[in-house]
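Incident log entry.

Two folding requests arrived from the same account within the same minute. Monitoring flagged them as a possible duplicate submission, but the sequences differ. Recording both here for audit purposes.

Request one:
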Amino acid sequence: MGAAAREKILGRLRRLCLALPETSERLSHGAPTFFVREKRAFLMVLTNFHGDGRFAIWCPAPEGMQQTLVEADPERFFVPPYVGHRGWLGFRLDRGLDWDEVAGIVEDAYAEVAPAKLVDTARAGRA
């Protein structure tokens, strides 16, 4: 996947993440990373991390979801290094995307770290 295609996907991810209440973006560990209230990371976008050949996101997932998704579709989902032991999920962006699925993953990740009031606000805005 070329740089232009990656940038287009990053732009769409950026719109999804920044549409959620009190979110921001900055580089963290060299990767575009999205935060709640500028403190708690809920999604990182990584390209070829330590030579793994992936264009992917890493994000927290609801309890049990990481294992379920990785077992069901290991071509798209994986356990990321460093944060995988805490239940974070890796999701490949270079394997054909269903943007409804991506939006759901983003929303779940946000809900894992955002305060309940912000999650309620986000859900009310979606209804």
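Request two (distinct sequence, not a duplicate):
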Amino acid sequence: MSAVRVRPARLDEAALLAEMANDLNEHVGIYGRPFTAAIVRADGFGDGAAFTPVVAERGGAVVGYAFFTLGYNTDIAARSMWLHDIFVTPSARGRGVGLALMAAVAAETLRLGGRSLEWGVHSANTGALEFYRRLGASGGEARVMGVSGERLRALASGGRPGPAAS
């Protein structure tokens, strides 16, 4: 079995990252495949990057990725890393790839002065929930919520968005 190597993603891997990010979305029931190589290049690389992408390789092939951003946790008054996504291709699951990605993001969190690493997980993603429990992660009472599209525009203009569709 080959070792897992985690490294910074390269700009020329944007199409692959977009494909895997869309696969993750579909895995958790989000359809439409919104990621494109152009979006990953614009948002994951350069001076104005919105997230940092890393990839995991086994046997020279990219088999997973993580997207993360340094932020702040007001609950503990300290810098905190937010893990947006972690994905391992189905054929590489159970082979240490997810653990290697999580360890790399945790190390980057500490390197940048972060005191916590946090993420959201879809409740239907039972495999991910079990993986995170094995890492010693615990769930809090907070729920990740947000607005987008028309609701975001209405809120930004001072209006009250209508109720969310169920």
